Amino acid sequence: MTSKELRQKYLDFFASQGHAIIPSASLIPENDSSTLFISSGMQPLVPYLLGEKHPAGVRLANSQKSFRTEDIEEVGDNRHNTFFEMLGNWSLGDYFKKEQLAWVFEFLTKVLGLDPARLYVTVFRGNDTIGIPADKEAVEIWQKIYAQAGLEAKDVNFPEKHGLQGGRIFYYDEKKNWWSRSGVPAKMPEGEPGGPDSEIFYDLGADLKRHEKSIFKDQPCHVNCDCGRFIEIGNSVFMEYIRTDSGFRKLSQQNVDFGGGLERITMVVQGKDNIFETDLFINAIRKIEQLSGKNYRGSMSAFEIITDHLKAASFIMGDDQGIAPSNTGQGYIVRRLVRRAIRHGRQLGIEQESWTKEIAKIVAHDYQETYPELKRNIDRVIDQLAEEETKFNKTLDTGLRVFEKIVDRQLTTDNRISGLEAFNLYQTYGFPIEMTVELAKEKNLTVDLAEYEAELKKHQNLSRTASAGMFKGGLADASEATVKYHTAAHLLLAALRKTLGDHVIQKGSNITSERLRFDFAHHDKLTEQEKKQTEELVNQAIKQDLPVTCEEMDLNEAKSRGAHGVFEAKYGERVKVYAIGREKLHFSQEICGGPHVKNTGILGHFKIQKEESSSAGVRRIKAILE
Questions:
Q1: pLDDT at 360
Q2: Domains of the chain: which residue ranges?
Q3: Phi, psi values for residue 546, rounded to 5°
Q4: CB 3.0-4.6 Å disulfide test: which of 303, 375, 554, 583 passes with 368?
């Protein structure tokens, strides 16, 4: 079964269960202050999980393009990748645990043909301090499902301490079996939804743990350990709670949010022990073998990093809202991906100039039917990759000269390169530690790897601390202040188009309860007069206390009415159009999921604090409501 067939079988199965199939959202978040990229299928759906009505109904399914920045350093272990597709299905206050778990099991075992005996599941252990009990309901449902498949399903607590114990259903704490955008319950802000989840694991075989070289061979084996035997292929989140100022209470609607990694499910269906040898990656792997003259199995980590990173970068740059490599924000992540791939290409001995574009072409070809925007934007991707290769190769050459100076100094002292110097070569000039060690060995020098690891860990901890305030999801929260800023963003776009012209389109936004950041297409710095006029138009709309109304309609009708929507690729045939104004004299009309205020009069006074460049051809406004 090909990955394309698997993806379609999933969508067809849930369509047969009454789900509307919605398209994937852009990788670039809309009105999202919490994350640089879309990292799960539920992110674009948060307003609906909180109670907004979705135009397509209460049962939804799709395959969502996703990217996780935090997994960059994990790539190279045959199962992690930064770009992936998340097969998802949602119940917005409709069905719940009984239907969800039965359907997922049926899809995996009957439609895909996986052996039920190789499937294991986990559930939430419960937490007395937050008043949420163990999910015994899910355990009972799973036991009935397994019994129908002819299997006994013993439930086991504390497998991380005592191992499998002959069990098939395992209890874990909130670090493993609780899901919210912000993580464990203690980190959830007020207004944040979450709930217990039930993960499904596939057993790749006990021999993966028994290898003499396995560092896990003497530790208890359980489904959530890291020995490599078990791999998670799906997670059903039961989003039934919301955090309040006095603790947790049940949501007004109980939701289901399922996510299953297409790459991992494809791996087990195709009988592989490695996602990179599935049809989702193998064409790029073969191209790298051709470019380098090396074999994948002989240099797996480097091949996987190159393949994953260039695939992810191609999807981000090739998005219709594409992000180019740069030194800040989303562009910095793209630059990091491309440069890390180039470094590993050098390690493999790839000498062809502008070789990264060859991988981008393969990615665009492999996904041309599923995600045609890649093919549509491939020329832009190729140009940006070529420019980045040229810049980085110059940086690497400079780094080599710095390395030679270190060598000259160390040969006259202790024949040892410090970990700090090795880390600076990596951080400043892109030298992977393997390259530094190899070059040092040629000069009869050693490298202090322990100090290098300490410096790297210190850097990673600082990076995590810097991003600790970010959590995954649509708007930062559903508070009234955030909703006000969301509505103000609509007014700002309309005002900019009236002031600057119809070429202005939204290129992204970042909205919190304290401020608005808005990116838009425009080449020139705004004059003081243009900023003043934009401010005045927004404040006039606020002063007039205009009503904000919502109407559902077909996408074509919305376009014919002049509704604006850059992100319309994520919507189905039925869309919501939010209009600000009276009768047909609308100040703003946009395709949007919500939420918004009812009248503009409650917004306060709109003030532009800063206007600056965001990237080539894109300007950024930072504004507040006073």
A1: 97
A2: 3-276, 281-393, 413-472, 480-625
A3: -70, 140
A4: 375
Can you give the pLDDT at residue 78?
Answer: 72
Displacement of CA 369 from its chain's centroid (Å): 22
Q: What's the CA gap between 385 and 317, in Å, rounded?
A: 9
Q: How far apart (Å, rounded) are the C-alpha atoms in residues 480 and 467?
A: 24
Q: Where are the extended beta strands (E) located within 482-563? A: 506-511, 516-521, 548-554
DSSP 218: T
- Rounded Cα distance between 103 and 14, Å, is 8
Spatial CA neighbour of 156 closest among 222, 255, 61? 222
**Is the CATH number of domain 480-625 3.30.980.10?**
yes
Half-sphere CA count of 532, side-chain side, radius 13 A: 3
3-276 has which fold? BirA Bifunctional Protein; domain 2 (3.30.930)
The SS3 of residue 250 is: strand
CA–CA distance, 216 with 605 (Å, rounded to integer) = 60
Residues 134-151: tens digit of each pLDDT:
999 999 999 999 999 999
Sign of CA dihedral 174, 176, 177, 180: positive
Radius of gyration of the chain (CA): 26
What is the reported pTM? Answer: 0.76
Mean of all residue pLDDT scores within the chain: 88
Within 10 angstroms of residue 309's Cβ, the number of other Cβ atoms is 27
Q: What is the DSSP letter of 599?
A: B
Q: Does this chain's domain 3-276 share its CATH topology with 480-625?
A: no
Residues belonging to the chain: 626
pLDDT at 212 over 70: no
Q: pLDDT at position 469, please? A: 36
Cα(400)–Cα(555) distance, integer angstroms: 55
Decide which of 216 and 576 is more confident: 576
